[in-house]
Write a structure and sequence with these properties.
about 25% strand, about 30% helix, Prenyltransferase, 11 helices, PrenylTrfase-like_sf, alpha+beta, 10 strands, 10-stranded antiparallel β-barrel, Prenyltransferase_CloQ, single chain, transferase
């Protein structure tokens, strides 16, 4: 029988989806909520919208701080929400949990795209080694291939989360304790080394207030495909000089977490340029900040 938490969350999702003109089909969305209904009371739950073409017409729901005893990927598969695959992305989470300490998990689903992502969040005081993670059999070769970049900027031993995007077959690496990499000079240098577009003044202003970032890699390309900076603020409209109308409407009209901080992300990639993501908390857990990059997850939400 559906729980009251699941009923309330589903009603909130429907209401928020209406604000941003995203369809919320009961047959598609309700099973996603019900599959994790027992975890909802202790989870941090966020709604996210973004400005880029890949996320057009979509709204995502993130759940973070899920107990380490519950593998969200395995549960999604057992509930018929995610097809099984022979691709390495399907075994990365289990490879991590077999060899590294996992403090908590996170997951993400789109109202249109269905179950999309999972995060392995390492304990807050135990950042992990990227060279060690790169040895996992399911890890993309591009992680080891870019190790020179990660070492050059002092990031190789500062891994806080690993994210798996099952829909796009990519993965994210989240870094902690990165203040030295958030100055305008460092941002320009790092993005130049990655062949990313020259950062705008808005991005440079944003990174001064960011607390971390993550990199997106895949099994199909040797390059780092996307770089995303994360910040927490109670007023994203004051943090960003220019705000996409969709983002502004979402922030002004969403009825949940009015007094809670919001997670804001500025991402850049060679093909898409700069774009923005905003997450508003339906259910806030202050300790989430210790795990966020969060797309994020985070730190959440971090999560892309």
């Amino acid at each position: 029988m559906p729980s009251s938490s699941a009923d309330s969350l589903y009603a909130a999702i429907r209401k928020t989806a209406g604000l941003v003109d995203v369809p919320c089909e009961h047959a598609k969305v309700r099973p996603l909520v019900d599959a994790f209904a027992d975890l909802l009371p202790q989870a941090a739950i966020l709604f996210r919208v973004a400005t880029d073409a890949r996320h057009a017409g979509e709204m995502n729901c993130h759940m973070m701080m899920l107990p380490s005893s519950v593998d969200p990927h395995a549960r999604a598969q057992s509930a018929g929400l995610l097809p099984r695959t022979d691709h390495p992305v399907g075994t990365l989470l289990s490879d991590i949990e077999e060899r590294f300490p996992v403090g908590s998990y996170g997951l993400d689903f789109g109202l249109v795209g269905g179950f999309q992502k999972a995060w392995s969040c390492f304990p807050g005081d135990e950042m992990q080694s990227l060279p060690e993670l790169a040895r996992l059999p399911s890890m993309p070769p591009s992680v080891a291939g870019n190790m020179g970049f990660f070492r050059r900027y002092g990031l190789a031993e500062k891994i806080t989360l690993i994210g798996m995007d099952y829909a796009r077959r990519t993965m994210n690496v989240y870094f902690g304790e990165v203040d030295d990499c958030l100055t305008p000079e460092a941002v320009r240098s790092m993005l130049h080394d990655l062949d990313m577009p020259e950062p705008s003044e808005q991005m440079l202003a944003f990174t001064r207030q960011a607390f971390g970032f993550y990199a997106t890699l895949s099994w199909d390309s040797p390059k780092i495909e996307r770089f995303c900076y994360s910040a927490i603020t109670p007023d994203p409209l004051a943090l960003l000089e220019r705000v996409d109308p969709k983002i502004e409407h979402f922030l002004r009209e969403i009825p949940y977490g009015a007094d809670d901080p919001k997670a804001v992300y500025v991402a850049t990639s060679p093909g898409e340029g700069e774009y923005y993501k905003v997450q508003a908390y339906y259910q806030w857990r202050p300790r989430l900040v210790n795990h966020m990059h969060t797309e994020t997850p985070p730190t959440t939400g971090r999560p892309d």
